[in-house]
Amino acid sequence: MMLSFGLFFADICQAEDSSAFTITPPLIKMNMEPGEMITSGIKVINNNDRTLIVHATAVNFKSADNGKVEFADEDDVGGNYTLKEWITLPQKEFIIPPYGSKNVPYILEVPKDASPGGHYAGILIGTSPSKEKSEGAMIGVSQVVSSLLFVSIKGEILEKGYIREFTTDKHIYYGTDESIAFDVRFQNTGNVHLKPVGEIKIIDMFGKEKAKLAMNEKTDYGNILPESERSWSLDWSIGDELVLINRYRAVLSVTFGEQAKQSDYQEKFFWVVDVKLLSIILSSLAVFVIILIVIIKAYIKRSVQSVQKQIEMQTKNWAQPPARKQEKKERKIVDLRNRRK
C-alpha cells in the first residue's frame, strides 16, 4: 500500500483490517551540541479494540518541492544534513493492547565532529516492517505514521534564503468571477531549516488595499530544509466588487530566521477587466449613440423641410409680379391759338 507524506507531517492511512493508531509528537525540534546525547521516546496510541503489533524504523528524508517529504531507504547514509546515523532504537517491535499505548524509546547521540546546522530524520511506526526499497514518499507498509526530528547543531549557523519566484497564472483576467492564483517559491540557501512567513497585499490602481493573503502562518509544518526550496499557491477572488478596468499591484513580503529576523519582498502587476460590465456599458453606449443619431437625423430632416418650405414660398412670391394700378390720367387741352398770340 502506498502512503503520501505531507511535509513535516505524516498522513494516516487505513489498512484493510481497519486498524488505526496515532503517535505523539509528530514533530520534534531541538538544539544540541557536538558530543551531546539524549534519550527520549515517542508515544504510540492504539485506537482499536484489538491488539496491535507495530515496528519502528529510523530513516533519513529530504524535502520535495510540492510540500512532501521523500523518505530514503533504511541503508541510505544520506548527505550533510542527515540524522538517522545518530539514532539508536533499543527496541523495534511493540505489542500494544486495545485502546492502549506504548512508548517507543530512542537514543540520539551527536558525534563530536558533527557539522553545525540542521540534521533531519524520521522515526517511522508501521503495522509491518518497512520494505527494503521505498521510492520518494511511498513506503510499502500496511499503515505507517512518522515522527520527524529536526535537530540544530550549535556552531556556525547560516540562515539564508530568498524569494525565488513570485508569479500569477495570467497577466490579464477577464471578469471579476475569476480567481487570481499566486505562486510563491522560496529557496533556502543556508545550513539550517527555515520557516518563512509572509503575506501578499493586493493594492488597486488608486492605492487602496483590497486584500491581504497570509502565507505559511499558524502551522508548525511549513519548514524548508537546507539547500532546498518549497512552493505555495494562494488564491484571491475579486468577488462582487464593481470594477471595470483596474491594474492591481501584488506585494509579497516574507520574513524568516530564528537567530536574526530577515526579510525579502517582490512585486507583481496584473490587470482585471470586467467583460460583462464592459459589455453592458458598451451596449448601453451603442444604444444611446443610435438614439442620438436618430434624433439628430430627425431634427436635421425637419430643419431641411422647414427651409425648403420657406424657399418654395419665396420662389412663388417672386414668380408672381404685383398687380398694376389703373391710373386715371387727366388730359389737358392746350389752346395753341392763345399761345401764338
Superfamily at the CATH H level of the largest domain?
Immunoglobulins
- CATH topology call of the largest domain: Immunoglobulin-like
Please give the count of helices.
Answer: 2
Name the structural class.
Answer: mainly beta
Helicity, as a percent range:
10-25%
Gyration radius (Cα, Å) is 45 Å
Could you explain how this protein is built, in words?
The chain has 341 residues and is mainly beta. It folds into two domains: 149 residues, Immunoglobulins (Immunoglobulin-like, Sandwich); 113 residues, Immunoglobulins (Immunoglobulin-like). Helix content is 15%, strand content 42%. The protein contains two helices and 21 strands. The strands form six sheets. Strands 4-13-12-6-10 form a five-stranded mixed sheet, with no helix packed on it. A hairpin with a 5-residue loop joins strand 7 and strand 8. The longest helix is centred in the last third of the chain and has 45 residues. The protein is elongated and about 135 Å long.
Reconstruct the topology from this structure.
Layout: E1 5-6, E2 9-10, E3 21-24, E4 27-32, E5 37-46, E6 52-59, E7 61-63, E8 69-71, E9 87-88, E10 93-96, E11 101-109, E12 117-126, E13 144-153, E14 161-168, E15 172-174, E16 179-188, E17 197-203, E18 209-215, E19 228-237, E20 245-256, E21 262-273, H1 275-319, H2 336-340
Parallel strand pairs: 4-13, 15-21
Antiparallel strand pairs: 1-2, 3-5, 5-11, 6-10, 6-12, 7-8, 9-11, 12-13, 14-16, 16-19, 17-18, 17-20, 20-21
